[in-house]
Specification:
heterodimer, A: mainly beta, 7-stranded mixed β-sheet, 4-stranded antiparallel β-sheet, globular, B: mainly beta, 6-stranded mixed β-sheet, 5-stranded antiparallel β-sheet, 11 strands
Chain lengths: 114, 113
């Protein structure tokens, strides 16, 4: 079991749909992350939020739009995705963005774009 | 630049020890991590080591760090079939970006009964 909860676990959507991925943690962590993981590859960082403010955007296309409504929640809004965006999307959190704070991951949302 | 490398695959028999190796290039790395990923799941933090340490033991897991050679290893004692998974090492470089992780490509561990 993980203390970072992601919903939904699976999502199938068409290229014209709008959907959102959700991530929640109640560990009091103030840094939250979105990663994209393709099959047989390591996770790739997409976004970092620190104290509810966007800290890092790793040149992610604008069809991915993150949102951090409060310190426990992180959303990823999806619109007009492409088939190559099909992947496992992982959320992680850490106590802060400091160097000695390990990141804890959720189980991910497996996204398929038709 | 940063680069973290791992061998792709390791196969062991149940009850044997497993040793998964990792090399990294960034000498400024402060923390090094081991994560486990089972099929269909996220990454589970197994253990981590600070760069001023050379060994850390946690139950069946032993992490060895050779900072001079930039080599990290994870030893799993008495390997069980439940240890079958992909293992990622990751480094956290000491830069202004804070807690950013650079992952290796992952080592798939297969444990045969």
């Amino acid at each position: 079991d993980t203390e970072v909860t992601q919903t939904p676990k699976h999502l199938v959507m068409g290229m014209t749909n709008k959907k959102s991925l959700k991530c929640e943690q109640h560990m009091g962590h103030r840094a939250m992350y979105w990663y994209k993981q393709k099959a047989k590859k390591p996770p790739e960082l997409m976004f970092v939020y620190s104290y509810e403010k966007l800290s890092i955007n790793e040149s992610v296309p604008s069809r991915f739009s993150p949102e951090c409504p409060n310190s426990s929640l992180l959303n990823l809004h999806l619109h007009a995705l492409q088939p190559e965006d099909s992947a496992l999307y992982l959320c992680a959190s850490s106590r802060s963005k400091g160097l000695n704070q390990p990141q804890h991951f959720g189980d991910g949302t497996r996204l398929s774009i038709l | 630049g940063e680069d973290v490398e791992q061998s792709l695959f390791l196969s062991v028999r149940e009850g044997d020890s497993s040793v998964i190796n990792c090399t990294y290039t960034d000498s400024s790395s402060t923390y090094l991590y081991w994560y486990k990923q089972e099929p269909g799941a996220g990454l589970q933090l197994l253990t981590y080591i600070f760069s001023n340490m050379d060994m850390k033991q946690d139950q069946r897991l032993t992490v060895l760090l050779n900072k001079k050679d930039k080599h990290l290893s994870l030893r799993i004692a008495d390997t069980q079939t439940g240890d079958s998974a992909i293992y990622f090492c990751a480094e956290s470089p000491n830069n202004n970006a804070g807690n950013m992780l650079t992952f290796g490509g992952g080592t798939r561990l297969m444990v045969k009964p």
